[in-house]
Structures are given as structure tokens and as C-alpha cells.
Recover the amino acids of this structure.
């Protein structure tokens, strides 16, 4: 599935739209990794486990959004945006949303 | 005894924090120099078109979570009394943003242009606990375009 965060798909023509699709997820790490991050907090530096958490959350949100778009019959999502929020300490919510569209390659332009 | 421990912790975290930060900035500058030739813009939301033929478009991302250290928090607490620039946290935010943007650009190596770059950030810390160390989580994303 093609995804862009601009309003068009370069090299393709949008022939139909199916409305807004979205996917969200809230993820948390286990207590041991939280403890490790707590230690890292004292010395400073990058928290690799939380970065991983964010990556997994983003992948999950995107796959849910894509599933929703697929059930509608779309083959691309344009204008994808992300919103994030911190619900509690150690948990991250990632929300992805975009417009599901049907796109065709331009032939003989 | 408690005071001694506190000062020891401050000195230790000052050393570790500044070493980590210095090394990180060195790495960031090196990687930014390497990526100087791959352009990145934050426009293109509306009709973007190019004279060259586009063969591939994809969404690219980069994430980074950077935390401040104990010493920085202590200094920021003092600074809070007088007001003004919190230089100790400025550098943390700067590192997190640049790291996330760099990761995004590195994942888009091979494409010619990144359009409509957006940077989203959250602070993951416990709002109930004022003593908790701020962690800055940054997510950067954009559309990578490859020409024929």
C-alpha cells in the first residue's frame, strides 16, 4: 500500500476516495525495562528501549490504519499524519490517520 | 553522609552526562555532513509536481528518545527560581530532534528528496511526580520521492 503525507501521489492520479481511516495503539514496556530506563535517566543518554517502544507503536498504528483502508477497497493512503500523547509514565499512544484513496498510474502522459 | 552522597551523585552524573552529550553531538555533526547532499524540505502538502518522472514514493520515519541526567535536572531546578534560558534542557531537546531527523534521512538513502517533513514530540514523564527526569521522545516523518 502506498502512503504519503502530501495531498497527492507523484506520478499517480487519484480516481476515488473512501474517507478518513485511522489506527491507534497504546504500548508499554515491562517493569524490568522500565527499571533499566530509570537507571539510564540518572546518567543521561538515549533510552533505546523507549525508542523501540515508539517504533513498535508506530508500526502497529500504521498496520491498523492499512487494514481499515484495505477493507474499504483503497490501494493508497494520502496525507498521513501522526499524533502522539503520553498517557502515563512509560506508555506511549500513537495515532495515525489519513485519507484512503484509489490511485492509478498515469499512462502516456 | 547524605549530603556527601548527593554531591557524589551530582559530580558523577555531570561527568557521564557531559561525556555522553559531547560524543552524541560529535556523531550528529558527522552524520549531518554525510547527508548534506540529500535534500529535505517541509513543503509539498498541496499540489507538488516535478518535471522528472517519479518512480517511487514512500513514507519514511525516524524516532528517538533522549533523557536528561540528574545533574541537568538539578541545574534546571535552580534556574527555575530565577527564570531565563534553561540551557541544560535546550541541548537535550536539540539532540533528540536532530537524532530523529537524521534517522529518518538515513532510512531514505537512495531517494532524491524528502517532502513535507514533520516533527512531532512528546514528553514522557510522570506528571504526578515533580522529581521525575524529563524524557523527550521525538518522531519525524516525511514522504521520500525517488526519480527515474
Amino acid at each position: 500500500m502506498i502512503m504519503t503525507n502530501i495531498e497527492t501521489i507523484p506520478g499517480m492520479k487519484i480516481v476515488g476516495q473512501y474517507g478518513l481511516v485511522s489506527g491507534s495503539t497504546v504500548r508499554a514496556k515491562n517493569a524490568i525495562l522500565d527499571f533499566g530506563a530509570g537507571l539510564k535517566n540518572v546518567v543521561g543518554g538515549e533510552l533505546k528501549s523507549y525508542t523501540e517502544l515508539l517504533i513498535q507503536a508506530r508500526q502497529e498504528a500504521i498496520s491498523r490504519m492499512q487494514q481499515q483502508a484495505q477493507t474499504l477497497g483503497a490501494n493508497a493512503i494520502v496525507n498521513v499524519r501522526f499524533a502522539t500523547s503520553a498517557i502515563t509514565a512509560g506508555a506511549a499512544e500513537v495515532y495515525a490517520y489519513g485519507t484512503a484513496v484509489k490511485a492509478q498510474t498515469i499512462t502516456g502522459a | 553522609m547524605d549530603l556527601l552522597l548527593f554531591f557524589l551523585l551530582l559530580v558523577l552524573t555531570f561527568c557521564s552526562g557531559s561525556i555522553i552529550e559531547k560524543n552524541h553531538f560529535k556523531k550528529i555533526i558527522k552524520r549531518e555532513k554525510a547527508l548534506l547532499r540529500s535534500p529535505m524540505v517541509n513543503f509539498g502538502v498541496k499540489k507538488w509536481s516535478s518535471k522528472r518522472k517519479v518512480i517511487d514514493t514512500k513514507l519514511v520515519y525516524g524516532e528517538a528518545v533522549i533523557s536528561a541526567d540528574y545533574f541537568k535536572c538539578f541545574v534546571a531546578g535552580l534556574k527555575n527560581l530565577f527564570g531565563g534560558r534553561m540551557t541544560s534542557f535546550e541541548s537535550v531537546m536539540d539532540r533528540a530532534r536532530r537524532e530523529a531527523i537524521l534517522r529518518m534521512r538515513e532510512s531514505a538513502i537512495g531517494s532524491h528528496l524528502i517532502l513535507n517533513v514533520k516533527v512531532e514530540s512528546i514528553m514522557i514523564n510522570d506528571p504526578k511526580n515533580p522529581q521525575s527526569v524529563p524524557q523527550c521522545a521525538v518522531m519525524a516523518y516525511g514522504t521520500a520521492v525517488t526519480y527515474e
The domain at 2-147 of chain B is CATH 3.30.110.70 (Translation Initiation Factor IF3).
